[in-house]
Amino acid sequence: MPRPHRETLRTRVGGFLRRGAGTTAALAAVLLALAAYVVQGALATTRATEEQQHALEIDALFFEARIAIATQEVNLRHYQVEPSVAVRQRFEQVSVTADRTLGEVADIGSGQARADALRLREEHDAYRELANELLDVTAAGDAGHGELDRLEVTPAYYTLQDDIDHVSRAYHDAAQQQVTALRQTQVRLLAGTMLGFAIGLALVGMIMRLVGGYQRRLVEQADESRHRALHDPLTGLPNRTLFGQHLAGALADADPADGRQVALMVVDLNGFKAVNDTLGHQAGDQVLVEAGRRLTAAVGDAGLVARLGGDEFAVLLPRVPGPGTAVALGESMIQALRRNFVLAAGPAAISGSLGIALLPQGSGDELFRRADAAMYRAKAGGAGLAVYDASADTGSRDRMQLLAELRALLDEGDPLGRLQLHYQPQVRLSDGTVTSVEALVRWQHPERGMLPPAAFLSIAETSGLEVRLTCHLLSLAVHQAAAWRMSGHSYSVAVNVSPGCLIDAGFVPAVLDTVAAAGLPPELLRLELTETSIMADPASTVRALVEIRDHGISVSVDDFGTGFSSLAQLRHVPADELKIDRMFIKDLGEDPDLRTPDAVMARSAVDLGHNLGLSVVAEGVEDVPALLRLRDMTCDYAQGYLLSRPVPAADLPAACTRAEEIARAAIGTAREPADQGRR
């Protein structure tokens, strides 16, 4: 190659290399600058994102605290309407949630956020202290709780609510400002290079998606929180709060002129506790869900079904023509509940007690009270359904006061022994020996004096206290019988059982546990049930009585002849004794020929009892001729004022001695002419 050509090639190659090196250097510089810009932009974006995330976290925590405080107030109001341990526990749970959330803000926040959180926490502590005081006053039944609520609790709540609303909105705005700042940083990053623009755009898109998703989640959580605050989490039905709102609206819209009424139904499940105890709480939850579904299907578009709590539901019919429509719908609901529940753990038989109250206008609380009273009356009578009846209402001021005092006695265990048992001897007519006594309750009221059973038993039976009261009295009688036995007097004690006890799944186990705890031989306890109460639910009653008798406890059919029961049903009752009501005995002494209808009924009852293999007791024996005529009829036992009035436990041994003396003197007088004739 000629030299000039070699020099030209060398020059071109050198120029290419120089330009390549320069281009490479320039490219490297651009890449380094771009890299630095991107790194700087990434760092700036990261800082902005962290600040925004922190702001959103603060915003979310304040919002959560706001929801918890509102839910705390809802539970406080719920407790004032329906004091219960469950409601107070929910109040404490949301109180702890609110306090914990504000504490988290104080821990992760700084500056103003920390100061706001600490201030709100102090305000919440003050409100919580006042609210707990109101809960205690409400639980104690103190009439001054309204003034405490109005003057202290409500102002404290509204002060706290206004403050946290203001703070929550402020930090929500701050979070939005952080979003705006982030967008500005991204725009500056986009102004650099196309690559930076692409990267920044991708980053903005990603962050916007994250922010948008987080905001959507916040909105969804808020909606879910509102839904949870107004709906039962298990069944999905409206809760008491939402139901109360609908009830208030229905009452406000009610127009008496159009002939329509507002109907409120309260439904309580019978046998639900037995499902929980035997099949487990999961099965109980399945029953509640299915019961809610059946009630909703039965009501349809005619009204609203809500779960009030536990196994209690409510139904609102905002416009019904009259009681007949409400009763027909109520009966369809009761029938729906009576169908067997097919559960994963096995089938379960549940029924319902439903109370109906109708009101053209007025207070929702009053309507609830009336429906509740009707429901308890339906449960006590075993009819399944009852419409509110003012004449049978336990809601008069005087009766409500007695009900409250009786409930308090049972809640506290009656430490002063206000509920007392008096005992009336029963004499065996063959030899005049006292073998058993009947326990009869009295209430030593601190202001009203000694109250007889008629003054308060009906209140207990129509207010859901009959099982608790019967179990309490049963425990007194059993332990007293055990004490007598230890002192050498093995009296059999008879205890009257209220109508609803034998359809309560927990009653029979309670009886057996009481007898075992007292160490009393089961044969020394006898349960007395009225003929009418047995017939209210024969199937359930017979099952319970069979279990009781299998454990050695005897059963007596009380007030026989007054219930007009079917003898075909009565013959299947597993009983040991028949008690003839006093109405057939009171005039027996004035009928020497035993030809009056009462005498015929008494003799027929004795013959019927003996033919069924039962011993027969006559109540209300008040004179010697009646006693002798009963003995002539081969009646087995007698009790009444002739022999002894009911007496306190301490006086019973002496009363039994007197009763035996009276009976033996009468029997001896009756025997004397016959003995002389034989001589």
Automatic annotation (TrEMBL):
GO terms for molecular function: cyclic-guanylate-specific phosphodiesterase activity. This is Diguanylate cyclase (GGDEF)-like protein. The keyword Transport does not apply. SUPFAM superfamilies: EAL domain-like, Nucleotide cyclase. Keywords: Membrane, Transmembrane, Transmembrane helix. It comes from the Bacteria. It comes from Pseudosporangium ferrugineum. It holds the Pfam family EAL. InterPro entries: Cyclic-di-GMP_PDE-like (IPR050706), EAL_dom (IPR001633), EAL_sf (IPR035919), GGDEF_dom (IPR000160), Nucleotide_cyclase (IPR029787), Rev_trsase/Diguanyl_cyclase (IPR043128). Residues 399-660 form the EAL domain. The chain crosses the membrane at residues 189-211. Residues 260-390 form the GGDEF domain.
